[in-house]
Structures
1.
Amino acid sequence: MIQLLAFYLFAALTLAAGALTILSRNPVHSVLWLIVAFFNAAGLMVLVGAEFIAMLLVIVYVGAVAVLFLFVVMMLNIDFAALRAGFIKNFPLGILLAAVLLAEVLMGVGVVQGGALQLGTPDGSAPVPAGAQNIEAIGAVLYGKYLFLFEVAGVILLVAMIGAIVLTHRERKGVRGQNIARQVARRPDEATVNMQPDVGKGVSL
Amino acid sequence: MTQFFQQWMPYEWAWGLATLCGILLIAFPLMLAVAMIIYVDRKIWAAMALRRGPNVVGPLGLLQSFADGLKVMLQETIIPSSTSKALFLLAPIVTFTVALMAWAVIPFNGGAILADINVGLLYVLAVSSLGVYGTIVAGWSSNSKYPFFSAIRASAQMISYEVSIGFILICVVLWAGTFNMNGIVLAQKSHVWLLNGFVFNPLLFPMWVMFLISGMAETQRAPFDLTEAESELVAGYQTEYSSMAFALYWLGEYANVLLMCALNAVLFWGGYLPPLDIPALYLVPGWIWLFAKIFLFFFIFSWVKATVPRYRYDQLMRLGWKVFLPVSLLFVVLVSGWLMYTGHFA
């Protein structure tokens, strides 16, 4: 009963927040609705017994990715009129993308309905393997069965990270950078001078 | 508690009522603790500056926080006309709610924990990463320069330090072998001879020092309080706030500081276990040990606030990314290597 209520609450909020994400006129509001959607999706994950995935969803997407989105969207000076100008031009492409995504969702639902995958059951109770915790089960699969693919994914991410740093890093000439070690090693007697100048006389350093 | 209520009602209702009672049992004492800890903070700060601190309202000034609360409640709520109203009011609520939420998984005693979930530590990380939204949304919705600068600073700062906190927690989890908070506390029982606590382990002691400093940065306490650096940003993200909305930020900030102190105690200093694994010390209830440890760490937080000058922003970023991140990464390798070598996982 509680699970059913919670499911409909989370599902309805996810859908509503998703709709408001694309309907909001203000991009910052869009990102905030997106965060609400992420959060409710995490709630749905908890309901099917995948609490580890739910926590990762909140930590990674809400805690880091969405903050960066918000960061960028807030910093940019967005011209709303210019954004809407390309609507007609991009409309066919948008429809195509939406159709592809809808087809993917329908295929996924079809596979579950056909019984090929054992996901959660409609009443919200998930088939949890006896005695296996979420984290242990995922760890055993990732670091045992799919170790090679997992490490390849890690290497790809590493290459992408180094690539991003190389592409955005630029060496600038004539910039006076700070040498932290020198700043820390500086002592009062080499930075200050005690003087007692006569009245009316200036100080020369 | 669920069993207690089941005498009179079916399981679902008993569970709901028990959870509600548990939430109130944590939230109300926590609010009281926050009010008193603000007084303690001001007293410590005053003592270190050779002042008297609050000493007028009530005996020894003990009622100062309540007087302040009453004053703030009676003030008019001013919402500047150029703000985004819904978000402007939502932001302090988010900060305050999130500051309370994480307490659900803190074990106060052997069985005294509201939500004994097996991803407890991840839950703390997830909830504490939500806290930044209260600041960002406040800064943006205020539609004013200084709050906005403050919000940008806060988001960069919190993301930077969460990375190193994550690696520090991985070391703890590797040694404890569980994400469950109760399990982490129990794993520290007589960790080094008779000493309860990961902090006495030479490999984990540097991690604790870094966790303490990262905690100060994460809660935006001095010396990392660049988000409300009054010489640069007026009052930071709280500039446009008044009345209860301002008080919610005030309370949320201290609830977060207390949470960081509690995490220090639970993850590194043995939580509700006594410092020494001697039967006589177990006669003292566990929550007294936990509260004593929280109080000790709060004193350290106050001490640092009273004595250390504020960091420059570039120093803050350098500390997070160029010092803490590589060192914590090195310790993940060291700790996991040592544990593999000694056959901890076998």
2.
Amino acid sequence: MERSLMKGNEALAEAAIRAGCAHYFGYPITPQNEITAYMSKRLPKVGGVFIQAESEIGAINMVYGCAATGTRCMTSSSSPGISLKTEGISYLAGADLPCVIVNVQRGGPGLGSIQPSQADYWQATRALGHGDLRIPVFAPSTVQEMADMTGKAFDLADEYRTPVMILADGLLGQMMEPVSFPEEKAPAARGEKAWAANGHGNARPKNIVNSLYLQPEKLEQNIKERFVRYGEIEKKYADAVSDNADGADIIVAAYGSTARIARSAADMARAAGIKTGTFRPLTLYPFPEKALREACASAKKVLVTEMSMGQMVDDVKLALECKLPVEFFGRTGGFVPAPSEIFEKIKSMTEV
Amino acid sequence: MPKFTRPRALADTETHYCPGCTHGIIHRVIAEVIDEMGAQGETVGICPVGCSVLAYDYFNCDMIEASHGRSPAVATGVKRARPDRLVFTYQGDGDLAAIGIAEIIHAAARGENITAIFVNNTTYGMTGGQMAPTTLPGQVTQTSPYGRNTATDGFPLRICEIMAQIDGVALAERVAVIDPKSVSTAKKAVRKGFEFQKNKQGFSIIEVLSTCPTNWGLTPLKSIERLKNDMLPYYPTGVYREGAAR
Amino acid sequence: MKWVLNFERCKGCALCTGACPKKILVIQEERINANGYYTARCVDADACVGCALCAVMCPDCAIEITD
């Protein structure tokens, strides 16, 4: 498997192309611009379509149209742009349209900053659009995972006919690491999806791609059927990784790039004689509750650390049903926490 | 004498449109053109939010429901994924000229090979007759109860004239559906738009002046008069741009 | 030439009455359809020349002209 040194953003874009995504609709916003630029360079060469839309709203609606024809497609943006896309994401979910949406997080709220952040956790897991809907969210923490999770996201999207988000951050997007790719999967055969609205060719009944159901019976049934699929996704896709959890007194829970820093802090803590394990969710929805409970089997306390004021901390408490004390340490505003800062926090949690 | 029957591309179903609303005529004209081009199997229609939000039940081709104002972007996604399809958007004046004006302008600027059917009845019909960007000066609506005051509510937008300035546009034509003659002109315009699209010659928009008896507070026949007397002077019908964009 | 109305589909909007060159279409007020509309009616079938202008102006495709 040949490896190349690539930025996270570009590795993600290349992986999407290799997953058969030949249609990309984007809009400039730091820190994800390399995805847009890479797609504009590569897609025309592989017979694909690249459009820089008039806005993030234009882009997500182009994804809606393209996905409606049964064609793999993607858009990417960063925090403020994702806010603009949320109406479209709700429509995509309500019309059961598969696609991949990438958020390379930056500091917020408002114009915020162009530095890395994880302050969109709540948005990604709770508020990607109005109405009863869940959006599966993958959380890469390495350049290799930026690539691997993209392929997985497209498969999940098609399997369960749902939009899927990749929640990265500016650090992951900009850093370079060696990455290898699976061989290219031919762009998924066009239009082989029976539900697609791509012209009935006088050979089948017409298809309607739509999320409007004025009769409550129809909308409730539509939503309930979708939640059955969410249940299946929760059973099948919830995923996490934990290290040194057996016998640990303290578990440090973190995702994405912060999880790498938390691991260094845990190493420092163990070196100082504090039995410390780490827990890292690979999916944020579905949140890996069972894996977290298992990781915390021996823990007396849990520390959650994020590049925000604390958002995943809620899901950790929920998963543990508040049976363990859960503390939080985070930096926000675009700061990336140092391992030593997290180590200090771990130490403070051991003092009686 | 020609027999007259429902075009095959128009679903044989009751519509929810108010009595005398000319949406129904515009739907039939589009369906007649689809039938004449034998394109029913390759057509994908995009309907908006507005009175025609249920149009997906009225055309016998694949249909997609777009969010308010975004049909041109949705149509772009469809057409770019399947360039061999005949793609049209069906939009009202609130949908196209207000919330969706960026989408329509940029679809035109990109010269997307799609056709926008723009129904201009100077009001937001579905929501009960609010002021639209095309509402005429002095026109009373739910949100211009004293008549649209240009000092505070600004001036109506002439969409065809605006679109005619964009190089990606192959056809920008304004028609009306107020009498058999104008209906046949409207049909020719829709056919021209679809032909430009099929020949990959760029973006086409047909603005169709239409009535809204319920929200204008007029009978269907009086609404036709109002369209002639009040709307035509402000929105003259005719071809504002025609010729392959590429 | 036969003017045929889909009685249930007509909404009594009267646009056809305005379009008929022979002025033989009216809105009758004897019977309402299932939706509660008084419908169009041809008062002199023999005078109908089958020009179909009424059908062209009908928003509901409720008029058929058959031979």
